[in-house]
From TrEMBL:
Entry keyword annotation includes Transmembrane helix: yes
Keywords per UniProt: Membrane, Transmembrane, Transmembrane helix
Molecular function via GO: amidase activity
Protein's UniProt keywords contain Transcription: no
UniProt organism field: Alteromonas pelagimontana
A Pfam cross-reference name: Glucosaminidase
Domain Mannosyl-glycoprotein endo-beta-N-acetylglucosamidase-like per the UniProt entry, residue ranges: 125-255
Signal sequence range: none
Transmembrane region(s): 9-27
Protein name, per record: Mannosyl-glycoprotein endo-beta-N-acetylglucosamidase
Length: 263
């Protein structure tokens, strides 16, 4: 091979590598989009060994302190989405044209929160405002404690699943030891705490089974009343086969653990 040809090949290779490096820099340093699901720094750290903590008060404090930052981060994200949707509503109400980015984001939100695609955009936005909203920290923490036996279940320890979430694709999680014959669900396994908490909160905010929870929250907001865990727990009858007993247990947990939840 001639020297000039070798030099040309080297220059082309260098140019290609430069393009790859520049593109990688752009992709990793881009401004986060409003729809990017947040992940906390502690999200993929190992779950604490709650079984090893004998002191009940210390176990509760450690449990709540581990989960609380994640719940607060996801609520901040939900509020940012909600404020954005409210901005879209103001645009629509004032007959202002929506940008292509706005339309793409609405499409994503409609799919993510299970809103009917054939609705007019103003009705889609109204439906999204009912679904995209915070969940009280004390409710999330009480459910996590209840569903994971205070973080000691293997599903929490090995798969960040503190919320008893199921999945329905073979290999998506853990096969329950007491699964009913003929059932095909598994207990979901997550790569980190952020994804687990996001999925749980999205589930309450979009699934038809929890419409009562969202209606209670919407009514409280309309009347400018606090959105509390005790109040929203009333909308979780369908979260457990135990129904009313489950709701009452969650409410009792919230009331009994106020000193820990308030920290």
């Amino acid at each position: 091979m001639h020297k000039t040809e070798t030099t040309k090949i080297v220059l082309i290779t260098v140019a290609v590598l430069a393009v790859i490096v520049i593109n990688a820099w752009i992709l990793t340093n881009r401004e986060p989009d409003i729809l990017d699901v947040p992940e906390t720094e502690q999200s993929d750290k190992p779950v604490p060994d709650f079984n090893a903590i004998d002191n009940v008060s210390k176990k509760k404090t450690t449990f709540f302190n581990y989960l609380r930052p994640e719940v607060e981060k996801q609520n901040e994200y939900l509020l940012s989405l909600r404020h954005y949707i409210q901005t879209l509503q103001r645009k629509v109400n004032s007959n202002e044209a929506l940008s292509d980015d706005d339309k793409e984001r609405i499409d994503w939100l409609v799919e993510e929160y299970a809103v009917e695609e054939d609705l007019d955009v103003d009705d889609q936005i109204a439906a999204l405002l009912k679904k995209v909203d915070i969940l009280p920290v004390e409710l999330v923490l009480a459910q996590a404690a209840n569903e994971s036996a205070w973080g000691t279940s293997r599903f929490a320890q090995e798969g960040y699943n503190f919320f008893g979430l199921w999945c329905f694709k073979r290999g998506c999680g853990f096969v329950p030891s007491r699964r009913t014959k003929g059932a095909d669900h598994e207990v979901a396994k997550f790569p980190n705490l952020s994804r687990a908490t996001y999925t749980y909160m999205r589930n309450l905010n979009r699934h038809y089974a929890y419409r009562d929870l969202r209606n209670i929250r919407s009514t409280l907001r309309a009347n400018q009343l606090p959105v509390t865990g005790v109040a929203l727990a009333e909308g979780l009858l369908n979260y457990s086969e135990r129904g009313v007993a489950y709701v009452e247990e969650l409410q009792a947990m919230i009331r009994f653990n106020q000193e820990f939840l308030a920290e």
